[in-house]
């Protein structure tokens, strides 16, 4: 998939655990884990907004587009 999720990188930079972040943004740890590992097929803007607000970052810090042709 050409969309790369860098949530784990931002969480490491902010020194916040998955359980701590999930509690602060009111999402289950299981759903946050699915997003963090890049297995999610979609994300609500309200969830993205909550993550960005809590991590003090921009959506582009979490989501990245990578052309499939350039990943070989």
Automatic annotation (TrEMBL):
SUPFAM superfamilies named among the record's database cross-references: lambda repressor-like DNA-binding domains (SSF47413)
Domain HTH cro/C1-type: 7-62
Stored InterPro entries: Cro/C1-type_HTH, Lambda_DNA-bd_dom_sf
Coiled-coil region: none
Single GO molecular function: DNA binding
Taxonomy, superkingdom: Bacteria
Database matches in PANTHER family: DNA-BINDING PROTEIN, DNA-BINDING PROTEIN-RELATED
Protein name (Swiss-Prot/TrEMBL): HTH cro/C1-type domain-containing protein
């Amino acid at each position: 998939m050409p969309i790369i999720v860098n949530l784990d990188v931002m969480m490491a930079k902010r020194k916040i655990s998955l359980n701590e972040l999930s509690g602060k943004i009111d999402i289950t740890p299981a759903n946050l884990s699915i997003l963090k590992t890049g297995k999610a097929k979609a994300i609500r803007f309200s969830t993205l907004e909550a993550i960005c607000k809590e991590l003090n970052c921009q959506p582009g810090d979490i989501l990245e587009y990578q052309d499939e042709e350039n990943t070989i």
